Amino acid sequence: MTGLNLSEWALKHRSLVVYVMMVAVFTGCLAYFRLGRNEDPSFIIKTMVVQTAWPGATAEETMKQVTERLERQLQETPHLDFLRSFTQAGLVTIFVNLKGSANARQVSDTWYEVRKSVGDMRHTLPAGVIGPGFDDDFGDTFGIVYGFTSDGFTQRELRDYVEDIRSQLLQVPDVAKIELLGAQDEVIFVEFSKQELATLGIDRSALLAALQAQNIVRPAGTIQTGQETISIRVSGSFQSEQDIASVNFVAGGRTIRLSDIAQVRRGYADPPQPMFRVNGQPAIGLAIAMRDGGDILALGRNIKNAMARITADLPIGIEPVLVADQAVVVDSAIREFMTSLLQAIAIIMVVSFISLGIRPGLIIALAIPLTLAIVFPIMEIARIDMQRISLGALIIALALLVDDAMTTTDATLNRLAQGASKVEAATFAYRSHAFAMLAGTLVTIAGFIPVGFAASSAGEYTFSLFAVVAIALLVSWFVAVIFTPLLGVVILVPPKQENSSKPGRIFRFYRNLLTLAMRARWLTIAISLALFVASILAFPLIPQQFFPASDRPELLVDLSLPQNASIFASEAAAKRLDAALAADPDVGHWSTNVGRGAIRFYLPLNAELPNSFFTQAVVVAKDVAARERLQAKLERLLAEEFPSAVSSVAPLGLGPPVGWPLQYRVSGPDVERVRETALKVGQIIASDPRTKGVNFDWMEPQRQLNIRVDQDEARRLGLSSQAISSVLNTVISGATVTQVRDDIYLVDVVARAVDEQRISLTNLRTLQVPLPGGRTVPLGQLATFGYQQEYPLIWRRDRVPTLTVRADISGGVLPDTVVDALSPAIDRLRATLPASDGVAVGGTVEESQKSRASVLAVVPMMLFVMFTILMVQLQSFSRLFMVVSVAPLGMIGVVAALLLSGRPMGFVTILGVLALLGMISKNAVILISQIDAERAQGKSPWEAAVDASSSRFRPIMLTAVSTVLGMIPIAPTVFWGPMAVAIMGGLLVATLLTLVFLPTLYVTWFGEKGRAGASAASPS
Predict the structure, then answer these.
(1) Is cis: bond before 132, omega within 30 of 0?
(2) Which end of the chain is more exposed for a tag (fewer CB within 10 A), N or C?
(3) In angstroms, rounded to a whole number, what is the distance separating the alpha carbons of residues 884 and 258?
(4) Which residues are paired to 807 by β-bridges?
(5) Which of 850, 845, 917 is nearest to 888 (CA)?
(6) How far is it, in rounded angstroms, from Cα 985 to Cα 968?
(7) Which residues cross the membrane (predicted)?
(8) What residue ranges in 120-221 does DSSP mark as E strands?
């Protein structure tokens, strides 16, 4: 090779290179401690929530007049994947989901466009619509959650303390935001007896107007004197419920005190807002989110120290309970991964020392920390934290990065054995292998391109795998050509001739096997191809998976009552669940969210929006084994004790959130036909014994009381439907009259009827409706009453009513397996549906297919980059074909390893298999380059193939063995295990085929027949 020899340059500038090595180690140590720590890599939840209210409208009116108009506008959103909405009577919630290919800047710009476009069409919505409101922080993660319980304190007193604690914690470094959970807003109720008001002839609306007028805030002017400015304030604003009760007003010529005709009391929102319970006790929670790029371990320490100071000042009776602590989880995960990393380093060092000897092994051992020391600062610059993906990538990269150092060291040793000086031997490695190693390194990195550029949430989640491996491999090449030669000159000594001339038994066996394979070359090629075809045919036998469940001890317990259930019913169910959890020895602690899902305390959590019928408990078992036992017990308990509820018990998942594992979406314009089809789909799913808990995201209608007003009679009496609705709303639900400004709170003053009149449906007939002249008339005189049914909510997807049939699956069975089994029956059902209706697979299977498609879409780019690098290095179509023919043979080992171990082919495993193509190609490139180098010395193709293969046998096998053994520490893990097993099996088999099949193919291609003399020993 001509041009600059980096190894020679390094040896001529030894002091500078040593200085750079020292700086690299120092900055690497510094960067290691400064790198952010997190549980999962950050990825954008590409969902915005748009909510709009239209009080008083029916579900159908809301859907046609509000949902439809908003969705038509939102369908013009750039990068839109799909819209998903649910419509309730008077309330619309729309999820705007962007495509996985949208990057962070596009997502931010798109949310601005959504706000702007909806704002522009706001005037087209019906009168009385409130909103729309927007939530684009749907993906915020609140990794630390405290619950505060109280004994002997009111809810208001507890909230005062929690608000003060919140203010203090907001000052802690790295805290981005803090949300309150379960806090109930105070309300002052003014409760009238409708009969008493009618008897006294009091106009309720005039009374409420008087309350509003007294409490209003208006400027009374200022007086400017020559010396000062004096503000004028008019008294009358309410400071407490006593001020309201003491209000006097004139009615019928008399002065009446409000407390004489109404009960004025302070209470809490009715019905309650979503509630939060800790270990079975009512509580208020504080959920703490970390700023982007923060260190969760540092945040955890700072919060812990702050809470220690705060707790010391809390009165006895108020107890903080740490409900979720991501810092502890991350600390444990990082310690486990660092242990795995150290184990991998130790394994590779042992392999190096045993196979190469003490001195060469020491060079490999020094190359590892040198490489990592340079990788850490680059990770810091690239803002790649220490998290699940990057730490796993370091272990995978570690097994690969020793390859170049081993190649350089082995070439130097061989040159020394031939009598060359240390300097000449060290620079020879660069001349003979540097560019082949660089091409191989780039090819290996190219194998990870689908990881880095897959346009999906799963691809974004695993991006740091590509980034870290690419950084580590490039750095390892520079270390191998700059630092390793310098270390070799200092550490290596020429090997003793008597040892170098005695090939070992393994080496002799390989030479004999290679010679035999080359002589029976057609049989060798046929066997290799047969094994490859067999692996392809056996591939469908491997179970398919998206992402596995987490190894955290938490369980998510979902409890959905019928969708017309009140929050009081959900609270009663939550208390029953709490009682069961309190008696279970496998439970460490738990928190219960009534009327909403758990806040996103874990990034891949499938967050649920507030709904009065929904309860979610986060149960932390004492360990993973206890979690498994607890899951089985809870599933039995919920089936037996909560038969009318849709329940689910599941561990936390990894990867992008998907919800129920088995989902089918039934869609069509006719709601009734959609229901009928969904019931048929449910029957098909339930027919498979591996499914359980079949349910629907909406299905059953609810009762509705319909008051039909005689409009002619109403007009004769001077009434309107609006006036009647206003009276009913005030009496039954209550109308907010004004607000009391109490410290930092705004307390609504709500006027309504007393309980016995408000909650009795029979009393509605005798409800006294005020007439314009001051008289009243019973409601039954001008209206009739009847019941009808309507759906409590309707889900839509892309403006089409969509009913999702959901189910859980038995343990050990993967969703893909069940979907494949159900496909024939589902296809037969599809064939009977009108063209406007459809049944689509959703959930885990759909997300898996989309993510795999995003990876496969990048494979052509990966192959183009690989072929280009190979062509630049080999500059021969025949040699390119040989490399390409060897690379897929790794599937033989992949399929065998996964089938024997029972591991599934998941998303991460697919990435590993694609990366394996690059690893195999690297060895093939270096081997073919070595064969060509041998031929350049005048050897025949047969002799060149045997000698080159013999020369490369040790470094290739050492690298393969180091890679395989280096992945042992992560092979048992849930997340990385299948990928590690696939790479271990694939690389081991592919390495053997590279050393046997590739030389055979080379000799076959160039037509050289076997010669007995070709088995002479070559330098070892």
Answers:
(1) yes
(2) N
(3) 90
(4) 662
(5) 917
(6) 12
(7) 16-35, 337-356, 362-382, 434-455, 461-493, 520-542, 853-873, 880-900, 906-929, 956-976, 982-1005
(8) 130-135, 144-150, 175-181, 186-192
